[in-house]
Design a protein that fits this description.
By secondary structure, the protein is α+β, with helices and mostly antiparallel strands. It is built from four helices and nine strands. The chain has helices at about 90-100, 105, 125-140, 145-160, and strands at about 1-5, 15, 20, 25-30, 40, 45-50, 50-55, 60-70, 80-85. It has a four-stranded antiparallel β-sheet. A three-stranded antiparallel β-sheet has the order 1-6-5, with no helix packed on it. A hairpin with a 3-residue loop joins strand 5 (about 40) and strand 6 (about 45-50). Helix 3 packs across helix 4. The radius of gyration is 27 Å and the shape is elongated. About 15% of the residues are buried.
Length: about 160
């Protein structure tokens, strides 16, 4: 939340539960004006109700900054900047909505969708291994991808034709 005229270069610092959250010493991950339409507040200008900035401290903690939040409803001047500490899970969910293309920059490679994988050691004679590698390469597949295909086909065949 912020007015269009808000100075976004001005640092904001808060101490929350004995920890410092400071925009001047943290990295801005993403700034969004959100999905809500701006409101024209007479005398104040355009106000973006869902504007927010996600930061990450030097020590890896995330926090969300919402500028110009109206805190005192009995006072027209009751606006303040609010910082909310975010857990990694909260930051990840926020990033999924606002900047999904940056998630892996902060959380590393994400697992591919689908069921989990299991590593299996397979001992093969060298001659068979060499032939399998050659076939996989001829099909522009890695050995792992080709073996997955072979096993999937064998399982499917065995499942559809029980003896």
């Amino acid at each position: 939340m912020a007015f269009e005229s808000t100075d976004r270069t001005k640092p904001v610092k808060r101490i929350i539960n004995g920890k410092s959250y400071n925009t001047a010493t943290s990295l801005l991950v993403f700034h969004t004006k959100g999905q809500d339409e701006p409101m024209d507040i007479l005398g104040w200008g355009l106000y973006y109700p869902s504007e927010a900035e996600l930061y990450r401290t030097r020590h890896g903690a995330f926090f969300l900054l919402k500028r110009d939040q109206h805190k005192n409803y009995h006072d027209d001047f009751g606006f303040e900047n609010v910082i909310e500490p975010y857990t990694d899970d909260e930051a990840l969910k926020w990033m999924e909505l606002n900047c999904p293309e940056q998630i892996e920059d902060y959380f590393g490679e994400m697992p591919e969708a689908g069921s989990s994988e299991v590593n299996i050691s397979l001992r093969l004679p060298k001659v068979l291994s060499d032939k399998a590698k050659k076939i996989a390469k001829s099909e522009n597949l890695s050995l792992n991808a080709w073996l997955n295909l072979v096993i999937r086909n064998a399982v499917s065949l065995a499942t559809n034709n029980p003896e």
